[in-house]
Amino acid sequence: MSDDVQSTDTEEKSLFAAPPMAEQERMVEAVLFASAEPVTVRDLEARMPHGCDAAEALVHLRRRYEGRGVQVIKVGEAWAMRTAADLAFLMQKETVETRKLSRAAIETLAIIAYHQPVTRAEIEEIRGVSVSRGTVDQLLEMEWIRFGRRKMTPGRPVTFVVTPEFLDHFGLESARDLPGLKELRQAGLLESRPLPGTPQFGEGEDEPEAEAGQSELFED
Amino acid sequence: MSDDVQSTDTEEKSLFAAPPMAEQERMVEAVLFASAEPVTVRDLEARMPHGCDAAEALVHLRRRYEGRGVQVIKVGEAWAMRTAADLAFLMQKETVETRKLSRAAIETLAIIAYHQPVTRAEIEEIRGVSVSRGTVDQLLEMEWIRFGRRKMTPGRPVTFVVTPEFLDHFGLESARDLPGLKELRQAGLLESRPLPGTPQFGEGEDEPEAEAGQSELFED
Amino acid sequence: MDEIEFDETPQEPQSVADRLAAEALIVDVDGFEGPLDLLLMLSRTQKVDLRKISVLELARQYLAFVEKAKALRIELAADYLVMAAWLAFLKSRLLLPPDPEEEGPSGEDLAAHLAFQLERLQAMRTAAAQLMARNRLGRDVFARGVPETVERVKSVTYTATLLDLMQGYARIRTRDEFRPFVMDRDSVFTMEEALERMRGMIGFAGTWTDISLYLPEGWAADPVRLRSATAATFAASLQLVKEGKAELRQQGTFEAIELRRITDK
Q1: Which side of chain A, N or C, has fewer Cβ within a 10 Å radius?
Q2: Residue B96: which region, alpha, beta or left (left: phi > 0; alpha: psi -120 to 50)?
Q3: Which Gene3D superfamilies does the protein's record reference (chain C) (predicted)?
Q4: pTM for this one?
């Protein structure tokens, strides 16, 4: 650095003359770095040895840090050093946690995929339970579903459809590629259920119980 | 900067390849700059994009800041940016008035630093007086010392060692860099010599331990 | 230990300066951190390298100090007296020719150890001073003035597989197929419904009333519905009894079941 150049010949003058510009630049650098607040040129000069030109040193310093990870910036009438804006992501420690989608969300998603465009009321009718706002919001946020066009029925309810992101995630070219009921049955996904027409005693009450059992079988 | 060179042809690779070294250097610069505490290479790499070589970037960065008003220094296993010591005169404003340490505390600290891992009994033997609880507490509270592993001697006494904060405060890269350590060692002043004629309990066991302790200073 | 001097010279009266120094020491006794600290201070008056110190001379100085303190009726802490006793012992060992019969360490060994202790303490003091004189963080060297805190961003990614999706759908569709068995609720009068109905009506019936009068209107026409309504009404009656709001009676087998409200006293 240029420090070497000056150190010998200005040694004796240093008591009276201002330090060389390279040295002044170092000073400004150190002060801006350590300062908790932006520092004015006046403040800088008050701290630096007599005869220093902080404004000029700042020009040099600012140029030196151009394109670096740290920038010299002006804040009002004062100066400060800040990390470059494009590196803000380094100031975050990201932890990503992958969680399995809830059963309610999966079912809602499945209904939308198989029946799109579908209204909330229709989803509720198919699922037999109301769909919580959170579930739909979550799917919207994941960008797996989006609003479709409104239905031409009374109240003109909004509909939901799946998105290209959905298809992408599940490796489908279109929603029509989703396996149908027949295929699901062939794949054994419907097998474990008693066939319709073989009524079981107390079935009505047993239903939710059996349901829970079933889901357990499927989920892991 | 070299950023321009790469931006076009590596655009598509960028998802997989690590950023160019100049960019990695900027990142390390930004992180070290933003942190008051030393940052380990591991931490740096955890925050940088995948595949970055923080250790190499640090070599470049350290060189870049040579002779500047701010320095890149190594503290134990971590790295930090600190103002150059010769500019201390500019910093009166930043100086934080630290509690004045008693002579007993300073001596105890030095003994721990040079003799670590060291037991309270050993400190007392060197100082010729008992070590008050407050002295040790104060040093522990300042995070300059911490408990080390227990000594394999009767009673299995705890030992004290110095911390990375200690190294940071005194600008030491490692405990090996303690002033005059080599000379003290050569003069045999870091050995623990029992008073002649007082065979120490478990002396045979103490021997390898003392060696291990000593070597620990030099191992990392 | 040839450095140790065995000459007897300083038995002569002390110089005035020496005496003044000794008195200053005694006045300052609280300023010392124990006997070793005092010994180190005394050893400096020898103005030699600590490695060439005369331990014998040092022992004399220390014992003289203790004598002086006693003469001035200054209370000395026990460890000063222990040290004095030990130094007196050391002095005799150093002065007397070694007894071949005697076990234990020689006077020279003990003197060497004391010299080592003093040198080590002095070395640690020097090291401490050097350490404190280093460029220190917050005094000579400064960290970033406005550190940026690292923000911890916890993002949760939800995921599902095609199999999850298909299973989910299968679950719903199978439920659909069972609907005829589950959902045929048109002809079911639940106990909750019966209870609601009866709670509203019981207030008006103070006397024994056949519970069949509580059946919902129009349900008697269909035998399936009648059966459900009767069962529900009976169950609801039992519930009211359980709650202490009504009592039930039946005069005989297959007689009408009658219900009466219990009025609060």
Answers
A1: C
A2: beta
A3: 6.10.250.2410
A4: 0.59
